[in-house]
Structures are given as structure tokens and as C-alpha cells.
Amino acid sequence: MPAAKKTGISFPSVLDRAYQEHKRHLRVDEIMSRDVVTTTPGTLMSDAARIMGERHIGSLIVMDYGTPVAIVTERDLLSKVLADGHNPETTTVEEVMSFPLIRICPATEIREAARTMIHRKGRLAVFECGRIVGVIAASDLIREMPDAPETSLNVDEFMTKDVVTVDAKETIDTVAGIMGSKRIGSVIVTREGKPPGIFTERDLLSKFLMKGKSLNTPVGKAVSSPLKTAPAGTSIHDAAKTMAAQRVRRLPLMKKNRIAGIITARDLVEAYAK
Fold first, then answer.
1. Same domain, yes or no, for 260 and 186?
2. Residues 157 and 178 occupy one common structural domain
């Protein structure tokens, strides 16, 4: 009897299916960041920025008399301080922090956590028995996003098509103002019409504010390069895998060698939450 021809089609094994089913029911306490970094209302935003930059994190829990009361984020720094022309050296955390905290319990499944994050518009503080035990950001959720029907959707449905670009000669100060006023976390940097890279709020924190460097520096000298991209038309799940592997939170999407849009970790969470 002749040997059966190979079809070239692969099917997930029982173990693969079981693993993906497990991921669909992951709990918040399995993916949360347990290292909760804190600050106080009276801390200067310049010091808060330095802490976030040194720890490579995007937020701090604000404690008042030993009680967690609010959160301050890198987006607060951009939109409420720099974009409004305030000085981080004289602005306190209390003036820009977001409260009340969005609380969630450790046993919550991750899809419900995603829905809470999108509905309440912020990072989640995980509380157990009245004590804060962790923090959930969009990047935590996409790192464990399951391969499921809800993540097979096309990224094109959720990407931002109006991609903001800046010339490499623009100063960091100007670019930070643009990002803050538009409430975006990144811009694509162009040089002679080509995009050598991206500048993000994390770059602002870790490369400038943390080190006390002048913001009167051309953004082209601080760009994150090379630009990490994915093809337009990819799935939510595959985009999440790419972001997690590349350790990025924003992914430009390419079509015919041009940037067709950009997808963020939060966009992916919103798609997953639907």
C-alpha cells in the first residue's frame, strides 16, 4: 500500500489546545506585576519621573499615610505637566495623579480584567484583603493573550490610521508637547521622508528626564531604532506575540512598504475585551 501523502496542514495537539484553554482562564494574580513601586503626594514629578525611568515602569502607586490612594503615570507627566508648560521640578505628584484607584481582585480572569481596564480607562491595582498586592498594565495582558476566536480579529479594525510623525530635527521639548497635547505615547520620527525609528514616552523618561538631560536635543538623536513593525492584516494574537517578543508597546503596521497605521498594547486589550 502506498504511503499516505503529507498534506502540509498541521493541527494543534491535545496539549496545545489544553494550554490555550488554560490561558483563556488565567487569573489576574498569575500575570500581575507584584513589585509595586510607590511614591507620595508631595514628591516632585521630576523625582517620580526618575524613579519610573530607573525601574523601567510606567506608573507609581501613590501612598498617603501608608494607604494607596492614587496612581501617577508617564502619561500624566506628558499630558498634565510637559504639555501644559509646567515644570517637573516644581510640580508635585498630588497635582497630576489620578484617583481613585481602579481596584480588582486577584481571582479575576484576565478577559474580565481587560474589560475593566477599557471601561475604567486606566491601569488596575490588585487588592487582596484590603492590601495592594500588584498592578496590571496593558503590557501584562498582551503578554499572556490567548490564541482564541476573540484574538483572531484583524488588527486593521483597531489600529490608528492617523499616525503622527515628526522630523528628526525637532527638539525633544517640542515632541513631548505634541505627544502630551494629542495624548499619544509615541511619534514616528522621519529623516528625509524615511522613518528610522520611533520616539516614545518611555524614551523620554529613561533617556532624558531620569538623567536630567536637556530637552533641547534633536529627537533624531534619541530615536529607538530600528523600527519594529508587523504587516497590516495580522491577527490580534500575532500582534500581541510580536509586541511581547520585541518588548514594545506600539507596533507600526506596514502595507506596500508604507506605514498604514499603528497598534498599541491598549488597542489590543480593547479588541480582546470586546
1. yes
2. yes
Structural domain of 103: 28-137
Q: What nine digits make up the cell of 231? A: 504587516
Q: At which residue does the C-alpha cell 499615610 appear?
A: 65
Closest CA to 92 of 39, 45, 38, 37: 45
Burial class (CB in 10 A: 0-12, 13-18, 19+), 119: exposed
Please give the Cα distance from 73 to 60 (Å, whole number): 6
How is the chain split among helix, strand and coil, in percent rounded to 5? 40, 25, 35
Strand partners, 148: none
Q: How much is the pTM?
A: 0.87
Mean pLDDT by 10 residues, the chain (274 residues): 51 56 80 96 96 94 96 95 92 96 96 96 96 96 85 92 96 94 95 93 92 93 94 95 94 95 96 90
DSSP calls for 90-132 = T-BHHHH-B-S--EE-TTSBHHHHHHHHHHHTS-EEEEETTEE
Find where cell 490610521 sits. Answer: 161
